[in-house]
Amino acid sequence: MIPPEVHIRAAVSEDAAALTSLIYRSKQSNGYDDVFMALCVDVLRITPEILTRRHTFLAETNNQILGCVMLDPKDTNTAEICAFFVDPEHKRRGIGQLLWKEVLNHARDLGFTQLVLDADPEAVPFYYRLGFETLHDTPSEAIPNRVIPHMARSI
To answer: What is the full DSSP assignment across 14-72?
Structure first.
């Protein structure tokens, strides 16, 4: 259940360090070891510049970021969900659903007709529940010789 004091807001450049920390903790909570995570550090790092290029929304309560989602336009019809993370201590409380509704409505408002993403294998069931389908495997940005599901959904 979503705590009533949780609200969604757009990220600002000052959120970059806190988002990087949240994303790293969330990714590691999927059971990845320190060696794996060390390979992901650069890919998971959020900078103020990234936040100016992407539409980023945060779930927050009492100035604590509970989760985030980023939308990156690819062309006039397609946008990529390039980060979708919930703090491990707040998973399974509806935060992901709240962020999903926000980013889906935002994508519709911007006129996109398709969303795509490269999914962590641990998150695939969540994305299936949101209506995504696996199109094919794609090489991981961070891990040599690893492939991850590339997924899409119409909106």
So the answer is: GGHHHHHHHHHHHHHTTT--HHHHHHHHHHH---HHHHHHSEEEEEEETTEEEEEEEEE
Q: CA 58, CA 8: separation in Å to the nearest integer? A: 5
Protein fold of 7-154: Aminopeptidase (3.40.630)
Q: What is the CA radius of gyration of the chain?
A: 15
DSSP 94: S
Question: What is the pTM assigned to this prediction?
Answer: 0.93
- Domain positions in the chain: 7-154
Amino acid code (one letter) for 4:
P
pLDDT reported for residue 106: 97
Q: How many other CB atoms sit within 10 Å of the CB of residue 132?
A: 22
Q: Which residue has the tokens 């990845």?
A: 32
